């Protein structure tokens, strides 16, 4: 079953990627909130299909199309012993200030949510570099 949400007409096209940030205060009284506020905040999604149905959106102050979306896999680093395809883990930002590390953006970067549940889709071969000495692997997770 596809996940659905509402997007402004300008954004409602196949292939459009976005990070869901959640609803605003105006969404609490919206009659379409049960279709729109179903995604996980902080996750990245891609539009896979645009439906012909549209509704008014108070948050966007325009019409919004109903779209089908799927989660986009995210590159992360995890402890090596956790890196098993199909396993789930609670990921988030590691406490690291080594901005010179090639993995800093997928390890401790500001685009990562503080904590979120992921499932590992694939594991890259070989260790991921860590400038503070942790044993890590790069993974694609959803």
Q: Estimate the strand proportion.
A: 35-45%
Number of domains: 2
According to DSSP, the number of beta strands is 8
Strand order of the largest sheet: 1-4-3-2
- Which shape, going by the Cα principal axes? elongated
What is the H/E string?
Answer: EEHEEEEHEE
Spans of at least 5 consecutive residues whose pLDDT stays below 50 are none
N- and C-termini, Cα separation: 16 Å
| Biggest β-sheet description | 4 strands, antiparallel
Radius of gyration: 18 Å
Total DSSP helices: 2
The secondary structure category is: mainly beta
Mean pLDDT: 91
As a percent range, the share of helical residues equals: under 10%
Explain the overall architecture.
With 142 residues, the protein is mainly beta. It folds into 2 domains: 3-71, no CATH class; 74-141, no CATH class. β3 and β4 (62-71) form a beta hairpin. The strands form 2 sheets. The chain has a 4-stranded antiparallel β-sheet with strand order 1-4-3-2, with no helix packed on it. The longest helix has 4 residues, at 33-36. It is 6% helix and 42% strand. The mean pLDDT is 91. The chain has helices at 33-36, 104-107, and strands at 3-8, 17-19, 44-57, 62-71, 74-79, 88-92, 115-123, 136-141.
